[in-house]
């Protein structure tokens, strides 16, 4: 049985990814900043709740100790993320409206938080016979995409969120090179209906979670250091 930890998993893509992995027979640790919400979500799908705030050192350290005591970890899914750059109209704030606080808040969760979790759980992953890391990124992280007028999201105005996901992609590349025994990849789930985008996505969470699940379950011969969506590799 594969042991899998998913951060930010009490709702949205994280919860649906956990649901699909539990249904496939895997042991899933459902990480949630709010333990009560996480506990209720975990009970609903048969996962193991773990209090985990990616912005808090003590919380992440305690979560790693909990998972270690439960037998270890094979797969880490860095799913926790926020979009903190909304303007007064509830739309992504463009460059003219971007503040340092918006950028820092976004990076603290989406980038620094991911590194904090990776650092804490690397010792457990290195004990696994087939360790995997999946960093939940976004199509908005593609520099070649957002700089091309033909790209479907070319006119997306936000700065902080795409910047954070582009940085997460760099973390994927560098960790994959540093730890060749661990399969480390970024995934673009697609434009999914979640709270993050006020449920304006074009696909369901069930559809969006499938590609995350697929990368979480790759074997030792699977790809590493890549950036993928449901159709295959994406341009950086």
Describe this structure in words.
With 236 residues, the chain is an alpha/beta fold. The protein has one domain: Rossmann fold, CATH 3.40.50. It has seven helices and eight strands. It has helices spanning 12-23, 35-45, 57-69, 100-125, 143-146, 160-178, 205-216, and strands at residues 3-6, 27-32, 48-51, 75-78, 132-136, 183-187, 226-229, 232-233. The protein has an eight-stranded mixed β-sheet, sandwiched between helices. Helix 1 crosses helix 7, helix 3 runs parallel beside helix 4 and helix 4 (100-125) runs parallel beside helix 6 (160-178).
Give short descriptive properties of this protein.
single chain, 236 residues, alpha/beta, Rossmann fold, 14% strand, globular
Please render the helix and strand layout as text.
Layout: E1 3-6, H1 12-23, E2 27-32, H2 35-45, E3 48-51, H3 57-69, E4 75-78, H4 100-125, E5 132-136, H5 143-146, H6 160-178, E6 183-187, H7 205-216, E7 226-229, E8 232-233
Parallel strand pairs: 1-2, 1-4, 2-3, 4-5, 5-6, 6-7
Antiparallel strand pairs: 7-8
Helix pairs in contact: 1-7, 3-4, 4-6
Strand order of the largest sheet: 3-2-1-4-5-6-7-8
Going by CATH, the architecture would be 3-Layer(aba) Sandwich
Ends: how far apart?
Answer: 33 Å
The general outline is globular
- Low-confidence regions: none
Which homologous superfamily in CATH is the superfamily? NAD(P)-binding Rossmann-like Domain
How many individual helices? Answer: 7
Structural class: alpha/beta
What is the CATH C level class, in words?
Alpha Beta
- Compute the number of structural domains: 1
- Mean pLDDT comes to 93
Which percent range describes the beta-strand content?
5-15%
């Amino acid at each position: 049985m594969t042991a899998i930890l998913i951060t930010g998993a009490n709702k949205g893509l994280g919860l649906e990814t956990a649901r699909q992995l539990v249904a496939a027979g895997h042991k899933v640790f459902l990480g949630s900043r709010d333990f009560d919400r996480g506990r209720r979500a975990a009970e609903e799908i048969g996962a193991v709740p773990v209090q985990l705030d990616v912005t808090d050192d003590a919380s992440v350290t305690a979560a790693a100790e909990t998972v270690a005591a439960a037998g270890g970890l094979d797969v880490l899914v860095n799913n926790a993320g926020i979009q903190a750059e909304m303007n007064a109209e509830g739309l992504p704030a463009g460059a003219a409206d971007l503040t340092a606080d918006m950028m820092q808040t976004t990076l603290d969760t989406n980038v620094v938080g991911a590194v904090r979790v990776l650092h804490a759980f690397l010792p457990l992953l290195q004990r696994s016979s087939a360790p995997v890391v999946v960093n939940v990124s976004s199509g908005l992280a593609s520099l070649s995409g957002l700089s091309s007028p033909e790209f479907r999201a070319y006119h997306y105005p936000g700065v902080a969120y795409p910047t954070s996901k582009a940085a997460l992609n760099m973390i994927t590349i560098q960790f994959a090179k540093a730890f060749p025994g661990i399969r480390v990849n970024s995934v673009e789930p697609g434009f999914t209906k979640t709270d993050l985008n006020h449920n304006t996505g074009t696909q369901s969470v069930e559809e969006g979670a499938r590609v995350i699940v697929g990368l979480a379950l790759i074997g030792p011969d699977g790809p590493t250091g890549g950036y993928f969506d449901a159709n295959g590799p994406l341009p950086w």
